[in-house]
Amino acid sequence: CPLHNIIPAWLKQTANKDLELAFNISNETSPFPEILGRICPQDVLCEGDCTLNDTHGAITIGAVETHISETAFEQGLKPLFPKEKIGKKVAVVGSGPAGISAATFLLRAGVD
């Protein structure tokens, strides 16, 4: 995965029916998995390289990622952000995907 998502870990937790842990893992490396599950070209990336293609067919990673986020949001789960701040402020210029990603990871690091 180009984003270094921990896909095997959230797939395992989904199979174990631990939605909260799967949701937390999927949000750990991705600022918005609920969107990327829909727009990422998994068919030519991870699903295209999946070794199960030879026998069973690839795991539909995008569909699972979308399911995790949608179900978690329906149940009231939200991405984790630290309660304690580090006392620093940063301004992010730009409201596109890069700016939103930067702001999300800065918030997760405790920056205002």
Describe the structure.
The protein is mainly alpha-helical and 112 residues long. The protein is built from six helices and no strands. The chain is globular. The two termini are 29 Å apart.
Radius of gyration equals 16 Å
- Give the overall shape, derived from the CA principal axes: globular
Number of contiguous helices: 6
Indicate the proportion of strand residues.
under 5%
Poorly predicted segments: none
| Portion of residues within helices | 40-55%
**Could you give the distance between the termini?**
29 Å
Largest sheet: none
Strand-and-helix sequence, N→C?
HHHHHH
SSE class: mainly alpha
Total E-strand runs: 0
Output mean pLDDT: 87
Short description:
By secondary structure, this protein is mainly alpha-helical. Helices cover 50% and strands 0% of the residues. The model has no long low-confidence stretch (mean pLDDT 87).
Give the SSE layout.
Elements: H1 7-15, H2 19-28, H3 33-39, H4 46-49, H5 61-74, H6 97-108
State the main characteristics:
single chain, 112 residues, mainly alpha
